[in-house]
Structures
1.
Amino acid sequence: MTFMKNVLFILFFSLSLNFAYSQEGKIRTAEIKTDIACDHCAVCSSCDQNIYIKVKDNTKGVRKVEIDAEKNIIKVKYNSKRTNLEEIEKAIVLSGFKANQVEPTEEAYNSLDPCCKKK
């Protein structure tokens, strides 16, 4: 009986490792250029939260969002089997910010706090 338990355990463990490695191959990181005009995003965090919420709510498979307001870059770690760069750009644009070459709609841009708009 113990032999059978050991065999089942090894089989289950092998399948788990195989599944874990197959998932890892789908993970990608994108660096998206944007225009964040706010000079105090780290303090008020309204720009950051706006982008985080739009990306997380409007795209499936996003694992992590990092915003570097000084460099105007948004790094997004995502599962390429569940979403793609185009969908992530659309979500960022919904927050009122440019995403690479995609411009936000006037409505989304106007919804930004005054400090987040270009001067």
Note: Residues 4 and 107 are 64 Å apart (CA to CA).
2.
Amino acid sequence: MISTKFIKSSLIYSIIGALPLASSFILLPFYTNLLSTDDFGVLMIYIVFTALIQIIVNFGFDNFVPINFINTSDNPLNQKNYISTAINSLLIIGLFVIVLAFFAGEPFFNVLNNILYKGKSIDFFPWGFMAVITAFFNSMYKTYTNLLVYQQRPVRFFWINIINFSLTIGISVAGLYITPFSLAGPMWGRLLSGFVIFLLSYLFFLNEFGIIFHKKYLKPIFQFCYPLFLYLVILWVLGNIDRYIILFFMNKTEVGIYDFAIKCTLLLDFILNGLGAAFLPKVYDLWKKNNLTESTPEVNRYYNGYTAVILLIMPLFTLVIPLIIPFFVKNNAYYQSFDFLALLTVGFATRGIYTMFIAPVLYFKKTKVLPLIYFITAIIQVILSIILIKHYGLIGAVWAAVITKPIQVLFLFYESKKFFTFKFNKFKIIYLPSFYILLVIIMEIFIDPKFRNWSALIQLVVISLSVLYIYRNEFSLLLDSIKQFTRKK
């Protein structure tokens, strides 16, 4: 049975873990009301650029450090040496990237502007350089908060995320009101909050693991992180290259409208990421204690519950977001993004099985398979995006993303089954999510967009009844756990 302690920690990791990018969702009304649509589009380009630099600086350490913490739990000295070496490697890489960007960033951006974006100039100084520094700060923070999840330290996780969230919101909003229709507020808000959380994270690392740098640990760290780094770069391409393709074929305003739709899904994305981060340490711990290389009913309960939550949240999200956004966002230009919301949201239907297939890859350090998997899917998505955006505009970018996600899952399953035996209920993990995807696609094709809310309501009712029936055992266990928890209170 899933413990009440797990439920409590899951709530903290899910809700609080969603705050860093939930802040982007909360800032949307201020961005859209106090920036022009062109400036909003440019801001999103810089934020996406920050994400790429963060991947480069981080080099996969945010995955290596927490997984190594579990794998070396029986050897504290080895654990300390590995983690401290990894953290100081991150520091060295980050400082090198900042220096390189200072000298080479502007020439590189000039080349891009002259070749790809004539008349749509994107400047490197000051905002691009600030994005690089922010990425460095966020890399240390992301690595440390991931470690806190695996250390099962929800209180510290709570406070460090609250600090980051409060500073980002506070500084950004103040800056937007002081200098409206300027990128100064949002960029300084991200940079200054990033500096504070970087400082806190690094000081906590120093206090716990010290300053250690052993060259002999670099090879195993590199062997784990290098394939993961390539995978994350390709994953960035899958998740973000469409903005640059849109900018090439269209303009900054269209980038802003499309990214607004993506930002509307951020809260859902990070709630699901938080839930995944909450239960995966439990899964890894079970594998380690029992020396498992195959699925078990106990582990499958976590994946089943995760998938059930995903399926229930998606239609609710699609229904609620278009109803509440107009109360906060007054620029009607952004409302056309609601037409993309159902299809963008349905992409999360594969998240449960995706997590099931990628978990063994990370735990058993088989990350060398990831770059090839995602390189192939990235090529597919880029080709689809170019063709579909050129001919159909923004909806083409949406369809390219929807088509690519199931392909990722298939390739991931093909590789992970080579070293891990999967046994699970296909109705819960595959068939029901597939049914929901087909339901949404059919309704999107045949039902007029003006009946969007009715479509979402029908989807919510149908999938809720289906989930309650097929996942009835999991809900029964959950209710029992909640009852035990309330009795203790």
Note: The chain has a mean pLDDT of 89.
3.
Amino acid sequence: MSASTAALSGIPFRKVDIDQYDEDRVLPSELYQPDPRPPQQVLSDTQAKDRAVRGLLQRGDVAAALKECVREGEWPYGEDSVPEIVQAKQLALNLILSVLNSSRSTDIPALVATLEPAEQVTLMKYLYKAMENLGDSSGNVVLGWHEKLVEVAGIGCIVRVMTDRRRV
């Protein structure tokens, strides 16, 4: 083993961020406008939305609860390095999942049809986030919602989610 190979053997080379050495790299802050609200306000707004949506679910109004969850401009996005933002994102995801789990599969197309196109895109973002993080816990529910959302909103909804840099 050569000296250079021996020196590099202790470095986890697959975890090295090579982009840090690129002077032309693009930062997330250059791709989209950050949320103008301070992180603590993002968290408190998400907690208030959580209380409102849970109240709607207790009354059995799943359509209003879903609409409240995905209302444009009120969902948390931003840097994952800020603890309040991470907590708000997790709270919002759990809230969406509770709404999705509260509905019957036969009601999904009607619920999705009531959403505006921007709200459908937001719902799709949360579905992909749920697929990314939850594994098997709500897989059937999330896939069922994804199927019905694509039937109503079309493939363009998926394209808009993939091209939008604001992650939920």
Note: The longest helix spans residues 39-58.
4.
Amino acid sequence: MRSILMKVTNFNYLGDLQMKKIIIMTALLASTSLMATETVDENKSVDANTSVSVSTTKINGALFYKKRCSICHGENGEKTPLKGMIPIASMDASALARKIKAYRDQDERHGAYAIYEDSIVMQEATYSISDGQISAIATHISKLK
């Protein structure tokens, strides 16, 4: 009985490391799932060459902007992460949506990474967001002053 108790209470170093890895991975998974709480109507599509999607009503663009964009662009879109860039506040929603999609897809046609050196940062920031989320963000930014 004593040997069983010692095995249960005596954790080895490798076991502790594995447990820490599991806890960290679980925490990361939980945090990423919290970031994806916005709902998207997948039946509605967004054409990058047209105006902003109607499905933006289900996504809170302001909240999404605050979580994903405000750290570099400021609470009201007034900051510029790099010298020479213009603030994004009050930009045209359609043009901005096309540019964000171009960053996500690394599409040179809209000057997303041909003009600025921030393409790696923006690609990392946008790789996982849907067209509907981009439309909601762009609509929100276009209303900022």
Note: Residues 4-9, 37-57 have pLDDT under 50 and may be disordered.
